[in-house]
Design a protein that fits this description.
This protein starts with a helix and ends with a helix. The protein is of the alpha+beta class. The protein has one domain: Alpha-Beta Plaits (2-Layer Sandwich). Helix 3 packs antiparallel against helix 4 and helix 4 crosses helix 6. Strands 1, 2, 3, 4, 5, 6, 7, 8 and 9 form a nine-stranded mixed sheet that branches.
């Protein structure tokens, strides 16, 4: 086995010398729109949900039970993340599940806030089911962020190994917020300032006579808002009928 470093250098030079074309448009569903020589800049948003303390969960419990807990978590998280047709990518990274969305309009980001609220209740539902079976309960942090970001196709030509890379704020900030939410006194959902500013008016309109902004705690260090908002019908079902 020997790495052809001469050909490797040539390949890197070709990539670096390429004058990539950047298009400003919505993120297409069809991946054939992406090549190794172009990129798309678009308004996107991302949601991450991360299990808190997963290392202890794995170390302190039977591995088959842990497998069932993690499978239940990822299965239902994926179902909820996939509720909207704006979704462009869903993935699993260890104990974290994420979704990336095309959100050119404010209503798209408002729809994603509904999704993070469903995820918040999902954890509550899972824990009630787990408790009945004597399984360990879980905690999760949820992050939502938006940005006008660059999307490129990256990989190795001819190998079939490639993926889209999302360069900018949406994915990084959502991941970071999920890693902070639900910890150190913070509420379970973290929302970037940009996402918040795009859905808060609609949230107030849909909840008249309620002090909606009081649901959120602003964190000056994270430049983000934290909340523990739930979906009322779902939550009532969990409390009374599950």
């Amino acid at each position: 086995m020997s790495y052809d470093y001469l050909n490797g250098k040539k390949s890197v030079e070709e990539i670096l010398n390429n004058t990539a074309k950047i298009d400003n448009k919505d993120v297409p569903k069809d991946e054939t729109n992406f090549t190794y020589g172009n990129g798309i800049r678009s308004w996107i948003s991302s949601i991450f949900i991360d299990i808190i303390g997963s290392t202890n969960l794995i170390k302190n419990n039977d591995e088959l039970i842990v497998a069932k807990v993690l499978r239940s978590f990822t299965s239902e998280a994926i179902s909820i993340l996939n509720l909207t047709n704006t979704v462009r990518q869903i993935g699993v990274r260890g104990d974290c599940v994420y979704g990336i969305y095309s959100t050119p309009e404010k209503k798209d980001i408002y729809e994603l806030f509904d999704i993070v609220c469903y995820l918040n209740d999902m954890v509550k539902m899972l824990n009630k089911i787990f408790k009945k079976r004597g399984y360990p309960e879980i905690k999760a942090g949820i992050g939502l962020a938006s940005g006008h970001d660059l999307i490129i196709k990256a990989g190795k030509k001819g190998t079939g190994i490639n993926d889209r890379i999302w360069i900018g704020d949406a994915v990084v900030d959502a991941c970071n917020l999920a890693n902070k939410a639900g910890r150190n006194g913070k509420k379970t959902i973290g929302v970037s300032s940009l996402s918040y500013s795009n859905f808060i008016d609609q949230l107030e309109k849909n909840n008249p006579n309620k002090n909606v902004k009081d649901w959120f705690d602003y964190n000056i260090y994270d430049h983000a808002y934290y909340c523990n908002v739930i979906m009322t019908d779902f939550d009532n079902w969990i409390e009374n009928d599950l």
